[in-house]
């Protein structure tokens, strides 16, 4: 009974999520190939740039949405007006069958600068920080969009960890911060909810089993 109850809950959880896919990326200087060490135009050190990104692929694999937040990269060109080195030039997703965490790959979808592929329709939103250096980006990669490719062709690479998100600056035209796109790991709260649900279902199963048990004869 307990095994049945546990299996039922897990089945319900899986069914509610369908085949939806959640992915994530942690962007930093060290992940670039080669790694980057940001400096000002005058050669002095500037703060390390970094960021995070999250991705969602719908159950029909017809689109992928994303949100990314980056720090210490000038999104507008005016956040650090005395230093052009950290100015954002382009931002893309790169992917390919030969991509690894330490190798580079081609641009498959651009969402800032050039190439720009979030255009069927244009879902790109850029929100620079009101104070500080950096900003938030969001967009939607629709099935037919892509840089000489499309989402359908690149999904196998994305799901296999052969893709990364890359932000390019004036100083580092090949990319200043990069994050490999990987499957999202559920937060501890998610595990707690799952375990709590299993305990609840198991408790209900025990009570039903006791109630349904026939009284013994004297």
Quickly describe the structure.
With 218 residues, this protein is α+β, with helices and mostly antiparallel strands. The chain has 3 helices and 10 strands, in the order αβββββββαβββα.
Explain how this protein is built.
This protein has 218 residues and is an alpha+beta fold. The chain has one domain (19-187): Immunoglobulin-like. It contains three helices and ten strands. The protein has helices spanning 2-17, 151-159, 188-212; strands at residues 21-28, 50-57, 63-71, 88-95, 107-112, 125-128, 134-142, 163-169, 177-180, 182-183. 29% of the residues are buried.
Q: How would a crystallographer describe the biggest sheet? A: 6 strands, antiparallel
Q: Quickly count the domains.
A: 1
Helix share bin:
10-25%
Distance between the termini: 27 Å
Low-confidence stretches are: 1-17
Instruction: Write down the overall mean pLDDT.
Output: 86
Strand % is: 25-35%
* Radius of gyration over all CA atoms, rounded: 23 Å
**Main sheet: strand order:** 6-7-3-2-1-10
What is the CATH architecture annotation?
Sandwich
Q: How many strand elements? A: 10
Shape: globular
Tell me the structural class.
Answer: alpha+beta
Q: What is the CATH topology assignment?
A: Immunoglobulin-like
Name of the CATH first level:
Mainly Beta
The arrangement of helices and strands along the chain is: HEEEEEEEHEEEH
Number of distinct helices: 3
């Amino acid at each position: 009974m307990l095994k049945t109850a546990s299996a039922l809950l897990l089945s319900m959880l899986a069914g509610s999520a369908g085949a939806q896919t959640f992915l994530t990326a942690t962007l930093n200087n060290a992940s670039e190939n080669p790694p980057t060490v940001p400096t000002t135009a005058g050669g002095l050190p500037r703060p390390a740039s970094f960021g995070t990104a999250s991705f969602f692929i719908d159950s029909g694999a017809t689109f992928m949405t994303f949100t990314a937040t980056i720090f210490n990269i000038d999104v507008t060109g005016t956040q650090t007006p005395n230093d052009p080195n950290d100015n954002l030039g382009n931002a893309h997703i790169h992917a390919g069958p030969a991509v690894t965490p330490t190798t580079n790959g081609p641009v498959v979808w651009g969402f800032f600068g050039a190439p720009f592929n979030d255009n069927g329709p244009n879902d790109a939103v850029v929100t620079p920080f009101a104070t500080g250096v950096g900003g938030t980006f969001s967009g939607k990669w629709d099935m037919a969009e892509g840089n000489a490719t499309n989402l359908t062709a690149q999904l196998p690479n994305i799901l296999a960890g052969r893709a990364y998100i890359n932000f390019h600056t004036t100083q580092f035209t090949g990319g200043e911060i990069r994050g490999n796109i990987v499957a999202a790991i559920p937060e501890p709260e998610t595990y707690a909810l799952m375990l709590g649900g299993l305990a609840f279902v198991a408790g209900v199963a025990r009570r039903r089993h006791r109630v349904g048990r026939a009284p013994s004869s004297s």
